[in-house]
Give the backbone structure.
Amino acid sequence: MTMLWEEASEGLFLLLSFIYVIPLCFVILTIYLNYRPDQKSLSIILFGFFLFCLMAILEYEYNLAPFAPDVLFYEKILESGKIVGAEYGKSVRFYSFISFFPGLLALRHPLLFSILNVAIYFFALHLYIRAFEIYIGKKIREKVLFLFFGFIILYPYSYWVIPTPHREAYAIFAFAFFLYSLMFFLKWPRKGILFLIISNFFILVRYQLILITLPFSILAMYIILWRKAKLDFPLRALIMFLITLPSLLCFIKLAQFFTGFKLNLNFLGSLRQFNYELYSASGFAYGGDLQWDTPFNVLRNSFLLFLQYLFAPLPILHNNNVFQTFLLFLDLIFVLLILMIILKNFYNLRHYLFWFFLSFISLFISSLYEFYYTATARHRIPFFLMLVLLASQLWSDRKAEVKCAYRQ
């Protein structure tokens, strides 16, 4: 009798997961109402959304995703329905706080929660598009929308981290919200300042991201002050110099608070060595033996860490077989495809340099504290999505130029 009841309950949850998909289509409807895409673009958006939902069901039933140790934390947090205490890290505690209400909506069930993650992810993609539109000062073309969601469907590793109890959907949403707030603030400073402050709070779902968002926020304030200050150049430069010192002190204090290490020349070495020793037995940790004693070593190692982060699983700072993690290899092919599109349209990149700068600096900073090469693919998603959108825009620009030349 107990077995029958458990099977019936599980069947009910599966039924509920399909029912949940219907109201969550509001996310897709929001995109549709905002952009009025043609039938082809709308079809690929809907297809992508339901493909991720299907993957959530398959992953729940057959455990298709590669094992990740931290997923166990998130599943325990979800099932317990509690906000965890000091025994967990700061970002895990914050994640348990912001995921509490979505967990209630999902009835504390991993499958329903995974489908909610899909909705959060697609809403985050909407924020990436809105941020880019504010940046370029106009709505994107339907061709760009079609290409962007086409690439989203082709993004291999997203299928293993979005439709699961991972916190990745929340991290992507937090960064997308920050990006939108940043562009909004640069366009409308008075209206956008509150958005910018709130977005830096949400980014704590993965506290390392504050090392990216805080410098960008300070940079944005510099840009606004430089634009608005009705002063001569020397006086404006002096004001910027005086603001820089407290800004740097604030950044150093926050970095030390969240990481627990002093921010000095050997900061990255201390941080990486701690994590490397913790996970070295797995065989997937890298960069723990790098020397950080001189400025030259800091520059060289930073460059190597960036290459390893961007082009994982290539053996740059590790000796593992590239094909040992085939899914990572597929993700590398996708990364190379996007970068090739950007390089092929390098001439038009001059129109989007600030966006390109933000994406690459984000990838660079994130690479400095990454130590587990099988985690690189999921940790670079929030920043690489900026390049995916940029590649879609550049490809569309190229096609538009070819059409214009052909008509002439």
The CA atoms of residues 6 and 12 lie 10 Å apart. Residues 266-408 form one domain. The chain has two domains: 14-166, 266-408. The longest helix spans residues 110-136.
